[in-house]
Design a protein that fits this description.
The protein is mainly beta and 230 residues long. 9% of the residues lie in helices and 39% in strands. It is globular, with a radius of gyration of 18 Å.
């Protein structure tokens, strides 16, 4: 039976910042990028502020949680710098189905940050795929109808600044694939290769997790928000 490959490409996490920060080597701004996947039930506001992690290997009927750790690097000989208008873009590709026909599916999504401090500390950003959307495009029968957490997804994460310059990259997926392999795969991925579902991957502030542990995460822009003028 055909093996189903999920490719969750975290596309461009794009950063742009203060004038002095922009003068630094942009490719070094976000380092130690690590991408992990999990599933979760939504948080229950009646009984607890915490969500309930899934102990099942099935991803159907669960929220798909994409976590990205990264460390913003402080420019040398500088202190108290921030970078504004950061975007984190994700692409997720998997062999799914639509209208009763098996075909590759491409999910996309973007998180926009108001500002992020360049503090040499670990940060975490999360994005989510709702179970209704995931279930809509998973095959209804066969081995791929139940998605396993083991070796199913391949992801690319790119950080970009306001000008669209990539300043950090991370990957997750198949064992044995190098960063070069991932980069080559995603560079060849185009809109015609898969059915594209824009906005299927949601930023944290559009999910039930929006107001949970809010101070543990960098601040996301509300709709129509913009960073302060410098």
């Amino acid at each position: 039976m055909k093996k189903w490959l999920f490719l969750v490409g975290l596309t461009a996490l794009l950063l742009h910042g203060a004038q002095d920060a922009r003068a630094a080597a942009v490719e070094e701004l976000f380092t130690k990028v690590k991408v992990t996947l999990n599933t979760s039930n939504p948080p229950s506001f009646r009984n607890t502020s915490n969500s309930t992690p899934s102990t099942s290997s099935s991803w159907r009927n669960k929220w798909l949680v994409i976590s990205v750790e990264f460390t913003p690097v402080m420019p040398q000989r500088q202190r108290h710098f921030w970078i504004d208008d950061v975007t984190m873009n994700i692409r997720a590709v998997f062999n799914g189905q639509s209208d009763g026909r098996a075909q590759p599916i491409l999910f996309t999504g973007t998180s926009e940050f108001w500002t992020i401090p360049l503090d040499n500390r670990k940060h975490i950003a999360t994005m989510f795929v709702p179970p209704q959307i995931l279930d809509r495009y998973l095959p209804s029968t066969g081995s791929a109808s139940v998605v396993s957490t083991s070796g199913t997804f391949v992801m690319e994460v790119l950080f970009k600044d306001r000008a669209g310059t990539v300043i950090g990259t991370g990957y997750y997926g198949q064992r044995g694939m190098s960063d070069k392999d991932y980069a080559e795969y995603f560079s060849k991925l185009n809109a015609g290769a898969a059915l594209t579902i824009p906005g299927a991957i949601l930023p944290r502030n559009l999910t039930p997790w929006a107001y949970l542990d809010i101070d543990d995460f960098d601040f996301l822009k509300p709709a129509g928000g913009r960073a302060a003028e410098k």
